Amino acid sequence: MKTSKEIRCSLCGEPAVTRITYAKLWLCKKHFIEFIEKRVLETLNRYKLAGRGQRILAAVSGGKDSITMLYLLHKASMEMGFKVIALHIDLGIGIYSKISRETVEHFCQSLGIPLITLDLKTLIGYSLPELVHKMRRPPCSICGLIKRYLMNVVAQEIKADAVALGHHLDDLMPYIFKNFILQNLFEISKLGPKTESENGLVGRIRPLYEVSEHEIALYAKLSNLPFVYEECPYAGKKKLDKQVKEFLNSLEGLHPGIKISFARAVARNIHVYKALSTTKPLKKCTVCGAPSSDDMCSFCKLTNRVAGKPLGAEVRLKIRDVLSSLGLLE
Ligand code: AMP
Ligand code: FES
Ligand code: ZN
Ligand code: ZN
Questions:
Q1: Which of 191, 130, 200, 197 minimizes the C-alpha distance to 162?
Q2: Which of 19, 82, 170, 260 is the most exposed place for a label (fewest CB within 10 A)?
Q3: What confidence tens digit (pLDDT) does each residue in 256-315 have?
Q4: What confidence score (pLDDT) does residue 3 get?
């Protein structure tokens, strides 16, 4: 058995910082960083996530995953010739949101990445905790709805080719597996490396599709990336989600590389899952024009309930003001 002193990088002989079991490699700091950066470049190319001349809107919460995603995307953009613009949504969740916002602002400033910050309270008059109190609905469902809506408005207004999210291998594979168990097969089509733009919904890309949680944590640490350690106070994993994740990790221990093989197989079959859609084609919200399955979109319905009128159209104008002041409107 090797002692930690003897463990050397398989590529250069320097002391190793980690083992990549599925690649049968021990890597030093330099080669691990290169390994992850190459993996993300390959992901961007393999799945055609971004290309020369494109505008990518990177959604950044301030947590480890999306900060790492932004950093890696920014690095790749210089090599591949696309532009990255960051978006942070301040949900007004007390100190958690304050620290998150500051972290994203400092990080973007240090890298010279243009940043759009939207403040929920300024946009609709309510913070997320105030909405949760009024609506009596699970915080994450309100939060998800609002974030999706705002990301799409910004992406449309700045004519972004895609919105980049920080989801990684260990977020996506357990969720896909769970949806398979429950036979929510169409849901799986939304969880691949790329969702195409259609019906007024700007497409999504996931540059960390093939990067594990452990690899992200180590990359962020070795690259000294600043991120918020605290989790959102509303966060809470359901038991089944946690168990499916543990199951896939134990399988990975027995069959190194199986999670990435799974991810690649799903990506190849996304069109099969997509074809299983039973939802009707989207219409346009009569208030704000956003894509919607009903006459009124869920954002307008939500704001109608809390503020007494649907705010979609007003919010879009406020967002246009923010973008215009940043020189980001076409
Ligand atoms: P979640 O909905 O928390 O699973 O986050 C999924 C992805 O949405 C993250 O990886 C980020 O890319 C993005 N995201 C989450 N929260 C925010 C936020 N407050 N502002 C901007 N983007 C966010
Ligand atoms: Fe959305 Fe916590 S960030 S509920
Ligand atoms: Zn090395
Ligand atoms: Zn609407």
A1: 197
A2: 19
A3: 999 999 999 999 999 999 999 877 888 999 999 999 999 999 999 999 999 999 999 999
A4: 53
For residues 155-170, give the mean pLDDT: 97
Residue ranges around ligand 1 (CB below 6 Å):
59-61, 65-66, 87-89, 91, 144, 147, 165-167
Handedness of CA 188, 191, 194, 199 (dihedral sign): positive
CB 72 within 8 A of CB 38: no
* Calpha distance 184→2 (Å, rounded): 46
Q: 237: which 2 tokens?
A: 């994993």
pTM of the model: 0.96
Here the tokens at position 133 are 């109190």
Q: Are 118 and 154 in contact (CB under 8 A)?
A: yes
**Which ligand neighbours the alpha carbon of 316 most closely?**
4
Ion ligand 3, residue ranges at CB < 5 A: 9, 11-12, 14, 28, 31
Query: How many helices (H) and strands (E) are present in the chain, helices listed first?
Result: 13, 10
Coil, helix or strand for 292? Answer: strand
Cα-to-centroid distance, 153 and ligand 1 (Å): 15
Q: Tokens 């992901």 map to which residue?
A: 43
CA distance 266 to 239: 24
How far does Cα 40 stand from its chain's mean position? 14
Residue 75 parent element (H or E): helix 64-80
Q: Is residue 303 classed as helix, strand or coil in its secondary structure?
A: helix
Phi/psi for 263 (5° steps) reads -60, -45
Helices (DSSP H) in 81-194: which residue ranges? Answer: 94-111, 120-124, 128-135, 139-157, 169-181, 185-188
DSSP characters over 56-71: EEEE--SSHHHHHHHH
Per-residue pLDDT reduced to its tens digit, 94-115: 999 999 999 999 999 999 999 9
Q: Phi, psi (5° rounding) for residue 22?
A: -65, -20
